[in-house]
Every structure is written in C-alpha cells, then in structure tokens.
# Entry
Amino acid sequence: MFYNTPVRMKFIQSKTSEKNHLLKMIRSFLIANSNIEFHLKWDHDEKEIFPISTPEKRIQDVLFKKHRINLIHTSTQYDGISFEIFMSEESSRGNAHKQHYLFINNRFVQDIQIHKIILNSGRSYWPEQETGHYVAKLEIPNDEVDVNVHPNKTVVKIFNPPKTYSIISGTIKSLVSSQEKAINKGEYKTSEEKIELPLNHSTEH
# Structure
C-alpha cells in the first residue's frame, strides 16, 4: 500500500502550503454539510465548533468569521438540474485571498470553465476588473456526470455541458439584473431570489 510513498514525498510542498490544501478541503466539507455539527482542532489551537445552521450562516462562519460580508443568493431548478449560488458584494482585483468554492452533487470540485462562467456572468455586479467571492452548488443527475476522471476526485466530466453552462450563466445574470434594478430603485436587498429560466437560453463562453 505504501510502496510508492518515498516517491510521492517528492511532491509534498512546504508545511504551510500543505496545511492550506488541507484547510481548503476541510472547509469544503463544512460548507457542503451545514446540517451537520463539526468540531475542528488545529495543532494547539482552541477547538472550533460549527453547529448546525443555514447554508449562508455556515459560509459566513467558515469563510468570513473575522469579517462578515454581504452575500446575495439565488437558486433555480431546470430540466433535472438545480443550481444555487452565494455571491459577495465585496470585490477586489486579482485572485489573492478569494474564496471560490464549487460543489457538484455535494462534492467539492475544481472546474475552470464553470469558474470562468461564474465570474463572467457576475462581472457587471462588481466594479470593472474586480471579482468577488462565491460558493456555488450544482446538482446534476448521476448519469449526466462522471466523477472518475482523476484520482483526486476533484475533477469531473459533465456529459451535457452546454445545458449546464446555460443554466449557470442565466441564473447568475438574472440575479445580477434583479440586484441592479433594486439598487436603482433604492431597494437593495440580499435576500433569496428564485429564478425562472426561459426555455431558450444561451450562454456566452
């Protein structure tokens, strides 16, 4: 079982870097399972307790405990796919210290195409050349996604990407549009929005 361990140790990075990778994965479990209470202890630090809570409160407790931020939220269901996203009002240039989490069927994944679609679809919400934080959750029928494309299981293959990308893009653009209208009317709000997608919806790639 550990035959190749000496070879694999060559790929281990610094202690800080490895800890950050572990922290990212642990945070993903915490965010994805807000209906479960977690007790977390790092080295000699005091134990942190994450009680059962709403998804938004769990996101705030895990990612923004020291500095609470405003989040806008929406969710939609269309043709067997459901999509939910929390986006921050706060934004900045570059990717340093950005919190970007994507879950597919409650599994933390990294998908550069979906990441780009999320940022591009929400770009009018943030100042020019700036982006914010997001936590996105996508539910797809199991027969429309393959999770066995990489050993670390954080890369997946979607069998019908155009439909999925369209739903993601359309949902975010509808949310941003509703927020912009509310701001123009002086009725800015961060409460949940329910989005109904039109049957014919296109996505910019």
